[in-house]
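Let's do one together. I've listed all components of the complex below, 480 residues spread over four lines.
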Amino acid sequence: MLVCQGDVVAAALPTTGGVIIAHSKSSKEPRDTLNRERVLRAAVDLADECGIESVTMRELGRRLEVKAASLYNHIAGKDDLLGGMVDLALSEIDVPTDGVFWKETLRRRAISARQVFARHRWAAGLIDSRDRTGPNSLAYVDRVLGVLIGAGFSPSAAANAFLVLDSYLYGFERQRPDVSIEDGLERTEVAREILAAIPDGGYRYAARVAIEYAENPFDQEAAFEFGLGLILDGLERSLG
Amino acid sequence: MLVCQGDVVAAALPTTGGVIIAHSKSSKEPRDTLNRERVLRAAVDLADECGIESVTMRELGRRLEVKAASLYNHIAGKDDLLGGMVDLALSEIDVPTDGVFWKETLRRRAISARQVFARHRWAAGLIDSRDRTGPNSLAYVDRVLGVLIGAGFSPSAAANAFLVLDSYLYGFERQRPDVSIEDGLERTEVAREILAAIPDGGYRYAARVAIEYAENPFDQEAAFEFGLGLILDGLERSLG
DNA sequence: TTGACATACTAACACTGTTAGTACATTCTC
DNA sequence: GAGAATGTACTAACAGTGTTAGTATGTCAA
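Okay, and this is what the predicted structure of the assembly comes out as:
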């Protein structure tokens, strides 16, 4: 059940998290008040279900059965909220720590990151350098740098490799076409739209590619791993 | 002279573009009314000088000596405005068409794109797949695909290569640290802040890298071209 | 001159993030 | 236990946002 605008049902039912705010006198239970963690999780859920533009203080408050102003007891402001959401999302990325070869470790990490960005489609667009200081993000950065330095990269070379890898990662997620999500019929429809938007005569190559994708589905997983392999191979080569 | 908030001086002086709106009766001159092009250019200037968050309808109107509502005669809405700004910025990217080797062509294009993103720091953050349908963007996409197909890539391989390259391009610009912009003193200051934010004991590798950059400046141009070379070499290898 | 059209205007709408001040419940201190 | 202190959520309001409806004004073509 998705509740994306302020429906009455949202106020009549328990929250998604299952924690009821009603002031039941049965004490000893975990506090029925808000906290930073619950606010951030609710914001992430809201963004996942309804899009990042639906994450407003009032809507978030509605979900938590609280007025918007109350949220400021637990977060510093909207910037803090968004930063916390990113940090929470990044914490879901898996960095294997068992003894696999560094290249395989980083490949798995990248694929895990891509899955996280697929789950939280708003995340990639929110990331920039200043977000890397959250507690989860820092731990994540540290682990990846550890893998690279352990593989023989110097500290600065490791940072460089990390930057290159994540640039690709975030950039891919930002601009990847949404086409492949829809089914075949709609895909050809989109391609036809693209073709319709192309003035006669011009854009021969773009048209050729559009036709290509109107006929054959675009495998974005394969496209991603193709580029990922390119970069990892290059990093390995730069190491020797 | 930067005028970023609604100062009175903005209304007393001619606009940056040098076009005076005053209703001078000397006719036959180019119309003194607005048009889409002038609105978009003013928005780009405003974003360059004051940041993308300063681009509001009212502020943009103030710059053009017009009320906000009047802008809607020339653009469909804010989405259209932002899309047009991105299209305008992308049109500044250079794609050499003379007979140089495809790899060199794409390298030059990437470097040109990075310079454009440095000029228009807001642009990379605004780009996503749906923005590629503007007239300038389409022409740009077409030229790049033409280079790749001309080099021997199949249409789908060319699209894939294009996606990988631009993912890196946009991603790098999004997350590149601002540190290197400030001078040496401030840089070490920033590094010290990072170190201060790191809890004792944890994050050994991140700390090591931070120290590294507190001592030696970070050459982001070199970092960018390192990753670019990696990808281009990989693409060439995938071709043969 | 008249009519059509494009443009810019005023005024208002429903939103947004955010703050000040108040009421209430819990928890700590004596 | 009584009283103080703290934390939480509330109401009400602020300035700012994008956007629309309706109105005036100017510029062209017939």
